[in-house]
Amino acid sequence: MRSVSLLAVLVGVLSGERPQGPLGREAVVAPQAALAAPLQSDLDGAVAAFVRGWLEENLSDLAASMSADGIRLQTGGADHPVLPARQARAALHDLLGSRTTRHLEVTRVVDLGGAPPRGFAELRWEAVVDRTSEALVHTVFVSFERDGTAWRINEIRVL
């Protein structure tokens, strides 16, 4: 088990530029946050790609990283046993579309090994719900499974 602080996973929200999410809002991230090129061959790279997709609200990239068998998704009390990527994308659109990210930090990345290889990431997500001023802090757990040469998301839990 190793701890990763916003990992070199994030290697530069280029000199203060803030990613624009497709939902029409600027993604607000911590100044030290940085975005790295995805290295899908290793777990850190898969986590970096997830973080980038989350911050940029790039739901197409997130959906493309999901397991072909679907994912388990838990958001705000709604627990979906297994959803295909298309439905998971819609649920994430609802979640991200109603919040503005203030801070996203990778707090832990663990490669569990096994056959097939599995791993997970834990993130701390601070976001403001639209039409409010109070920031809510969520823990986001993302579970990955190695599918051939790439890590695939098989579970996302937002607590």
Detailed description of the structure:
It is a single chain. The chain has one domain (about 15-159): Nuclear Transport Factor 2, Chain: A (Roll), CATH 3.10.450. A six-stranded mixed sheet has the order 2-1-6-5-4-3, with helices on one face. A hairpin with a 5-residue loop joins strand 4 (about 120-130) and strand 5 (about 135-145). The radius of gyration is 15 Å and the shape is globular. The chain has about 160 residues and is of the alpha+beta class. Helix content is about 20%, strand content about 40%.
Give a short synopsis of this structure.
This protein has a single domain, classed as Nuclear Transport Factor 2, Chain: A (Roll).
The number of E-state strands comes to 6
CATH fold label: Nuclear Transport Factor 2, Chain: A
Q: Pairing-aware structural class of the strands and helices? A: alpha+beta
Number of helices: 3
Instruction: Give the overall average pLDDT.
Output: 80
Major sheet description = 6 strands, mixed
Rounded to an integer in angstroms, the radius of gyration calculated over CA atoms is 15 Å
Categorize the overall geometry: globular
How many separate structural domains? 1
Please state the second-level CATH architecture: Roll
Order of adjacent strands in the largest pleated sheet: 2-1-6-5-4-3
Order of helical and strand elements: HHEEHEEEE
* Proportion of strand residues: 35-45%
State the end-to-end CA separation. 22 Å
Q: Supply the CATH class.
A: Alpha Beta
Roughly what percent helix? 10-25%
Q: Which regions have little confidence, pLDDT < 50, spanning 5+ residues?
A: 1-40
